[in-house]
Design brief:
Shape: globular
Number of strands: 0
Largest sheet: none
Helix content: over 70%
Structural class: mainly alpha
Strand content: under 5%
Keywords: Membrane, Transmembrane, Transmembrane helix
Subcellular location: Endomembrane system
Number of domains: 1
Pfam family, one: PEMT
InterPro entries: Phopholipid_MeTrfase (IPR007318)
Membrane topology: Multi-pass membrane protein
């Protein structure tokens, strides 16, 4: 298998991953946050079972229609691929910093589905003392890296969908956090920016 052919295969499967993952991830969080009270009544296991049952057909449908949805490729662009690798390195650095402060159970949304919504801790230290949503910023960078390497027109459109969708998710999530943590979260929101750190004087 030649280098060009191997790279084409890698780019194709990256594009397929983006096609399946991006709409599903946005839909997942839009199913969780606005309906948190309903899911809490069901309990964590039933909630994940119900959400999974809704998402699996979506993922399967996107995968089965992958060639039609992806259209054509713009080929391998070494400069874009290099920029993509830089984005992935930045995402990897953020990932390491992020997981010092963010337990896995928080990442997958277990506190939102907990039967005791008043419990939990608002994380405001570490990277969360600099920006409010580092995990979404890390995902922005990682997905951009994959999109640049894949270099499919549909991948760029999917990335725009991600940027718009995840900002909607953030707005809904912040409303839910304000309901859970009240004044503590409102003060935190005023003090710490969403994505871009403020310059320190």
């Amino acid at each position: 298998m030649g280098e060009g052919t191997l790279m084409d295969v890698v780019r194709y499967w990256l594009a397929v991953m983006l096609l399946v993952a991006i709409p599903t991830a946005i839909l997942y969080w839009l199913l969780i946050h606005p309906f948190a009270r309903f899911w809490r009544r069901l309990g964590v296991a039933r909630a994940y079972g119900a959400v999974g049952a809704m998402l699996v057909p979506v993922m399967a449908g996107l995968f089965l229609c992958r060639d039609r949805l992806l259209g054509h490729s713009w080929g391998t662009n070494r400069l874009l691929a290099a920029l993509g690798i830089v984005c992935l390195a930045g995402a990897g650095w953020l990932h390491r910093w992020l997981f010092r402060d963010l337990p896995l159970r928080v990442l997958v949304g277990i506190p939102e589905l907990s039967a005791a919504p008043g419990k939990g801790t608002l994380i405001t230290t570490g990277i969360y003392g600099t920006i409010r949503h580092p995990r979404y910023l890390q995902m922005d960078l990682a997905l951009l890296g994959y999109v640049l390497i894949a270099n499919y027109p549909a991948a760029y459109l999917l990335y725009l969908l991600w940027l718009a969708g995840i900002r909607l998710v953030v707005a809904v999530e912040e409303r839910e956090l304000a309901a859970r943590f009240g004044e503590e979260y409102r003060r935190y929101r005023e003090r710490v920016p969403r994505f871009i750190p403020r310059r320190r004087r």
